[in-house]
Amino acid sequence: MIEEKKLRESETLPLSASVPASDYVIIGGTGDLSIRKIFPALFLRYLAGQVTDDFRFFVVGRRKISAEDFRAKLEPHCLPNIKSKGDAAISMSLFIDLISFIELDINKPNAMEKLASLVLAKANQDRPVIFYLSIASSLFSAACQRISEANLALPQSRLVVEKPLGHDRISSQAINDELLKVFNETQIYRIDHYLGKETVQNLMALRFANVIFEALWNNGHIDNVQITVSETVGVGSRSQYYDQYGAVRDMVQNHLLQLLCLVAMEPPARFNADQVRNEKLRVLQALRPIAQGNFVFGQYQDYTSEVAAQSHTETYVALRVWLDNWRWAGVPFYIRTGKKMKTRASEIVITFKKRPHDIFAKNGVTDSSQDIPNRLIIRVQPDEGLRLLLTSKEPGPGGMRLFPSELNLDFHETFSERLPDAYERLLMDVARGNQTLFMRVDEVLAAWEFIDPLVKMRADSIPILYRAGTMGPSDELLSKDGRFWIDPKDEVHGFS
Ligand code: BG6
């Protein structure tokens, strides 16, 4: 039986909680995001047994696409991740059978009649109906109207949207208002895919499932925090969008601020959506408005030829950020992100304060090569893991010589299974009705409130050009403070 042959890679995919059978309606389902991220993630969950044959998928697009063409587009994004490719091809056929293809123009009234009859035929309270708007935000309002007039805004319906949710606070508010006309906040899932990354969630486990760090997690013991998200790719085919947005709006407003929130937030009383998001919101509200001297903008050298325009859009940004609260008063958070940089890596580096007194100093003078602070390095991607830099004694006789050593937790070595892609978790969380890893409207707006003045200041400045393949423009942001960037994968005090 073909059914028996269906691949269930339980040995390679982590076991996970069950998810109610759901209908996923992907509006813009033939587009890039759907093909590269959404459907590969759903397929991997199908292989894992979490998505069952009782699920239904509706690919909604303006142009007609056949099941064969869709499959041909999808396969290159799915199969490289799978070990047993032959069996996966069989599973792919079964998976494709779960998809219906619906052609409609979202701007035409009553365009969703056919979709509605299919969805409503199986509708019941326990079967989530998930609308994923994989379209430009300028079409969100029309999509919500179509959903509403087709009576598909059911109590069990959910809406998934992606950034960019506006380009500033006002436009973001306007988009959110449109969504809220049809759905209530508990039905809206705003994706920041960084929150679905394993190590990002692990940051919460590290902080709130262990006792050893919490006592040190404050301005009494932490000297500074650095967050780096560096990419090796340029803007590529997205130049039109990117040139309007720049690194501040494309990356800092969402991913970097979310990482900062998870590092800086207070422990919530419970691990649930509202409590976690309340604490993140408090961090965003504690951000000190950015002032001159606290930012650097850069642009990689070839950028203007790629976007075919004279442009001052930043492809790199570094910020020194302060949080005005008791826990973090006086601790700078240095955050940076850029395209066409030397390495692709996302890392959070917590540098602890130096020892208050050095009992090993010779004649009262500390050998600076031995004067190394403790560091906790959280590697978000790739090569997910944690490293703790400690100081140890160099073995052997001949006096007390100190050297930096490392406690290393490599998640790939520890967990032999494949780490799931962010979209796999996030898409399953929507079906489960768990909003913890999605952004609430007030978080999005608070982030824009911090970003808006920065965007204005950017408009008045000219970015520093940097060579592709470097870590961005050299700057004085840290050196003025007597510090330096800890580059991912750099040989920093013995780190490799
Ligand atoms: C997206 C940005 O949100 O995140 C892109 O729009 C960026 O510009 C991407 O390349 C980075 O995501 P990841 O998961 O590759 O780090």
Give an overview in words.
With 496 residues, this protein is of the alpha/beta class. It has two domains: 2-162, Rossmann fold, CATH 3.40.50; 195-420 and 440-481, 2-Layer Sandwich (Dihydrodipicolinate Reductase, domain 2), CATH 3.30.360.10. It has 14 helices and 16 strands. The protein has helices spanning 2-5, 32-47, 67-78, 85-96, 113-121, 140-149, 169-182, 198-208, 239-264, 273-286, 303-307, 411-414, 422-432, 441-459, and strands at residues 23-27, 56-61, 99-103, 129-133, 157-162, 188-191, 222-230, 295-300, 316-321, 333-338, 345-352, 375-381, 385-393, 402-410, 438-439, 464-466. The strands form two sheets. It has a nine-stranded mixed sheet with strand order 14-13-12-11-7-10-9-8-16. Strand 12 (375-381) and strand 13 (385-393) form a beta hairpin. Helix 2 packs across helix 3 (67-78). Residues 1-15 and 490-496 have low confidence and may be disordered. The structure holds 6-O-phosphono-beta-D-glucopyranose.
